[in-house]
Design brief:
Length: about 110
């Protein structure tokens, strides 16, 4: 079954693995404004966020879309989410303000 949702709803609360800017390697913390690059390849059911940027380094567009992938560039801030049962916290995306999207057909094939 295919589930669709607006990109800001999809990315809000997304648990992040990395907390450093992918470009300048600055450590990012709860409350920091960020841009996140999210991607889902054709045939995959799940999204990933391989790159996170601080506001000084954030790209403003998806320069070279990837053929066969849906890519999102979202601006928002970092927040902490807590699981009361396990008493563990995780860094997540919150307050998504703007999303730029490329669709699988926008990209170029690489050789």
């Amino acid at each position: 079954m295919l589930v669709t949702a607006p990109a800001d709803q999809l990315l809000t609360g997304f648990q992040l693995v990395e907390n450093r800017c992918s470009y300048c390697k600055t450590e990012l913390c709860d409350g920091d404004p960020v841009s996140a690059y999210a991607v889902r390849y054709a045939g995959d059911e799940s999204w990933s966020i391989p790159r996170l940027y601080c506001r000084d380094c954030h790209p403003t567009t998806i320069a070279d879309p990837t053929l066969g992938a849906t890519e999102l560039l979202a601006e928002g801030r970092l927040g902490c989410m807590m699981d009361a049962a396990t008493q563990q916290t995780s860094l997540t995306l919150l307050g998504i303000e703007r999303v730029i999207q490329s669709v699988p057909e926008d990209g170029r094939a690489t050789l």
